[in-house]
């Protein structure tokens, strides 16, 4: 199985009237429940609109995104599926529920971290 990041940009849902947001939330949670039931859901969340704090390698903290940053993530889901096609199918369901386009990117495998997590689960 391969993990995929499904995300949308901050502001992508701004076109949705406030009175329709409960319906969007309900539809989104239905897709999450479907993904949980299918055993592919890893994690997901919407991000608060706020300035980013950037911590440099020397520990210096800057309370703004990098100046060249034009777009920031507004929300994301991580699914663990057998193929890119399956990830795209989940992204399509999320796009309908959230009423906005979704970006799909494969996460790099990390066998060492996976081994750490399996070890922690045994405790």
UniProtKB/TrEMBL annotation:
Parts forming coiled coils: none
SUPFAM superfamilies: Dimeric alpha+beta barrel (SSF54909)
All copies of domain YCII-related, residue ranges: 31-100
Pfam families according to UniProt: YCII
Assigned protein family: Belongs to the YciI family.
PANTHER family, per database record: BLL7171 PROTEIN, BLL7171 PROTEIN-RELATED
Protein name per UniProt: YCII-related domain-containing protein
């Amino acid at each position: 199985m391969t993990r995929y990041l499904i995300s949308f940009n901050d502001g992508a849902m701004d076109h949705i009237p406030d009175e329709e947001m409960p319906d969007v939330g309900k539809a989104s949670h239905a897709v999450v429940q479907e993904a949980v039931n299918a055993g592919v859901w890893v994690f997901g969340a919407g991000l608060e609109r706020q300035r980013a704090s950037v911590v440099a390698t020397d520990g210096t903290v800057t309370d703004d995104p990098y100046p060249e940053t034009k777009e920031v993530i507004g929300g994301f889901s991580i699914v663990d599926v057998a193929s890119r096609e399956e990830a795209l199918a989940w992204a399509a369901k999320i796009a309908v529920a959230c009423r906005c386009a979704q970006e799909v990117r494969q996460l790099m495998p990390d066998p060492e971290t996976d081994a750490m997590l399996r070890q922690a689960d045994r405790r």
